[in-house]
Specification:
Shape: globular
Number of domains: 1
Strand order of the largest sheet: 1-2-4-3
Distance between the termini: 44 Å
Bound molecules: zinc ion
Structural class: alpha/beta
Number of helices: 10
Number of strands: 4
Largest sheet: 4 strands, mixed
Helix content: 40-55%
Amino acid sequence: MNKIITLSIACLMIAGAAFAQKTTDKSAGKLSGASKEIPFSIDTMSYVEGNVLATFYHEFGHALIDLMELPVFAREEDAADSFALVLTEILHDPLRAEQITWASADQYVQIARKSKGAELDFSDTHAPDMMRYYTLICLYYGGDVDAREGFAEDNALPQDRADFCEEERDMVQNAWTRVLRRIERDKPGADWLVVRDVDESSDPYVVAAQQIVRESVAILNETYNPGFTVNVDMVNCEEDNAFYDPDDQTIIMCNEYISPLTRSFSPL
Ligand SMILES: [Zn+2]
């Protein structure tokens, strides 16, 4: 398990560390931004929540791979990405699932734009951001190719890739639903997912993000019971990050992860 543990520690789902926007302004009454104040908006909040949920599910996937000692035959980060997508569609209605998926995919585009011109890091444990974008769009489209053809076109999925998406989706769907069936809760009981350390914030987006994670924790506790405990910390990390720490069986959602999301969102 050492290899998995090493890879999991370094997990950053959305913002590649090299391109992370460090936040220094956490003062009350405004959203942390390097140079501009971003007014609170429902659309931005929905975008932030979508990304927070997708990231939280991705880290949950790492936790299951670690604690259930699941076999992983290729890049663990790709497995965690596909898990997040499958879980999103299980837990949310179709409209919300599409919003979450799109918001998560859009972040890869935003990060790729910020890093334009920079050399790709082929040694990274994650696939390049645009590859993660197309895979996410493909897997979502593959869940219902008739109904989601417009989604694939709107998000520029090439036909050469689209031809394989139904098959790709079936593969990850079958893999993860088998795992999730094993841990479905059959009777009420103690929580296994436990919100532990929380650093409070006056940033309304951070407050809302923490609330959506709490709600998700409650739903996951009601729905599943894997027989082990996973902690959830929502804390100040001094870095824009989210990761699973196998040594502490803890998902850590950094408060600093939120602000760059608010700056990324641009209404159509
Ligand atoms: Zn990861």
